[in-house]
Design goal:
This protein has one domain: tRNA-splicing ligase RtcB, CATH 3.90.1860. Helices cover 28% and strands 29% of the residues. It comes from Paractinoplanes aksuensis.
Length: 357
DNA sequence: ATGTAC
């Protein structure tokens, strides 16, 4: 039935010294064997995901919804924010409740909500998602930001909307291709717009709660989506658009993040990493973290930042030591000519969740 | 990563 064709290429853009979990490489090979697959590019933050690798851009003539996963539209946005004399304790205490959905009486309530999906609007979600007040620690290359400027970094996606889109497909077709790519893409595009709106609404909520002026985003890059390029489908799963633009590559809740000028070409599927990448599974991070860290040191980090996280389990799962070193990921991007560092941000206050769960 | 069930 399936015709014989040249197998897709797999290339991982990491230096030999950068450890990549072997399960993630196996997943890349499995993806490469899919019908229609042309080129799999693993980013230096590559790690195993649920059925498909995270930190990968996968170019194919066939559209596979499972390669993007449930959080369609997830991305990272950076907003300039002005606060006169930031008091971290006070800011942490005044952060809005981003676990609770926006209500229509809020001043931020938008006129146009993609897919009419109002559930969980302007909420951050869980997992690796966060909203962070950060300071520009150094500027390495001319850009619109200056040393000392404050920014709000928002990493979040489409919450239940993307999940429902993937589920609708999976219930009928499992890990198979989209039977009607156009229909999938129309729903998908709504989720991508919803994710971007979600990040803007959260920034606005934080600005209002802190009495701070929030500017238009200087970066807003989605790293989970399907991009149609020359009639082919480029599946991004934790891989940001990397062709001639600035992207924020997130560190961890307690280490710096990097704004980079991305200039990735076809061989890297026009992509760059989206973050530090997990070094261990959530269960390992919880087990090892409990032996290694106290809750107090995870809530007040080595760089002096505060982490608002009422959920102790999530705090351990998201510990900086559960992730690769961001400097190594950035070094790998540089070494392969995919990106050049532009500015370094250091966290001041990171919001994860108020709740206990 | 998610909403929901356990």
């Amino acid at each position: 039935m399936s015709q014989q064709s040249a197998r897709a290429t797999v290339r991982v853009f990491a230096n030999p010294g950068s450890w990549i979990e072997s399960d993630a490489l196996v997943q890349c090979d499995q993806v490469a064997a899919l019908d229609g697959m042309i080129r799999v590019a693993g980013m230096p933050d590559l790690h195993p995901g649920k059925g498909a690798p995270i930190g990968a851009a996968m170019l194919s003539s066939v559209l596979y919804p499972f390669l993007v996963g449930s959080d369609i539209g997830c991305g990272i946005a950076v907003f300039p924010i002005r606060i006169k004399r930031p008091n971290l304790e006070r800011i942490a205490g005044r952060f809005p409740d981003l676990d609770r959905a926006l209500t229509p009486d809020a001043p931020e309530w938008p006129d146009d909500i993609p897919a009419g999906h109002t559930d969980s609007l302007a909420t951050v979600g869980r997992g690796n998602h966060f909203v962070e007040l950060a300071r520009i620690d150094s500027v390495l290359q001319p850009t619109g930001l200056a040393k000392g400027d404050l920014v709000l970094i928002v990493h979040s996606g489409s919450r239940g909307l993307g999940e429902s889109i993937l589920r609708a497909h999976t219930e009928v077709h499992g890990a198979g291709p989209a039977a009607d790519p156009g229909a999938y893409l129309r729903a998908h595009d709504d989720a991508v717009r919803w994710g971007s709106l979600n990040r803007r609404l959260m920034a606005a909520r934080v600005g209002r709660a802190l009495g701070a002026e929030v500017g238009a985003p200087v970066v807003d890059e989605c790293h989970n989506l399907v991009e149609v390029r020359d009639g082919l489908y480029l599946h991004r799963k934790g891989a940001a658009r990397g062709d001639s633009r600035e992207v924020l590559v997130a560190g961890t809740r307690g280490t710096p993040s990097y704004l980079v000028a991305a200039h990735a070409g076809a061989e890297a599927n026009w992509s760059v990493a989206h973050g530090a990448g997990r070094k261990m599974s959530r269960s390992d991070a919880l087990r090892r973290g409990k032996a290694k860290h106290t809750v107090a040191e995870l809530r007040r980090t080595k760089v002096g930042s505060l982490v608002v996280c009422g959920d102790r389990q999530l705090l351990f799962e998201e510990a900086p030591t559960a992730y690769k070193r961001i400097e190594q990921v950035i070094g790998d991007l540089e070494a392969h000519g995919l990106a050049t560092p532009v500015a370094v941000t250091v966290p001041l206050v990171t919001y994860k969740t108020r709740g206990q769960r």
